[in-house]
Amino acid sequence: MRNAILVSCLALTALTAGCFENVTVITVNPDGSGKFVLDSLAVPPPNFGGPDAKAPDPKEIAKQTVTSMVEKSKGVDAWSDVTAEVTNEGKIHMKATAYFPDITKMEVEAAGKSNVKWAKNAAGGMTLEMVLETKKPDKAADKPKAMTDEEV
Q1: Residue 58: CA count within 13 A, CB half-sphere
Q2: Ramachandran category for residue 99: left, alpha or beta (phi over 0 → left; psi -120 to 50 → alpha)
Q3: In the beta sheet, which residues pair with residue 29?
Q4: Residue 113: pLDDT band by 50, 70, 90 thresholds?
């Protein structure tokens, strides 16, 4: 049991420490159009299925991730330089360039939900807003429901 806990802790440490590196460059033109360039390097997920389980294929993971990004992204007119490969070190390396007509409507799937909002202002320019969303604690959720002695 002690070895299982140690292995789990090491796996979680590996998952959170340096397993993922993203470089994103967004170029916005005065009219709000532009391009989004993503260069991502990630360690493939570990095999948690046990000794008999087949490890996930990094090439297949890279291909599925890039395909999903292209298909699910919104507000993108065209894609170029889309690549997905496995490096000699076994890491997944993905690159892609998306061209968009309006940054206020662009959502690239692989980039996740952004707290950065672009909007056109009355003067014809662009306004960049960084939104910090804070959740107010739900007092009712903190309080456990009443239970009978049998339930306890």
Answers
A1: 17
A2: beta
A3: none
A4: low
* CA-to-CA dists, residue 99 to 5, 40, 61, 67, 114, angstroms: 47, 18, 24, 16, 18
pTM of whole model > 0.70? no
Beta bridge partners of 22: 40
| R_g of the chain computed on alpha carbons | 22
pLDDT tens profile 12-50: 444 444 577 888 888 888 888 899 898 988 887 776 666
Phi-psi region of 40 (alpha: psi -120 to 50; beta: other; left: phi over 0): beta
CA distance 76 to 99: 6
**CA angle at residue 41 from 20 to 92, to 5 degrees?**
110
CB 83 within 8 A of CB 106: no
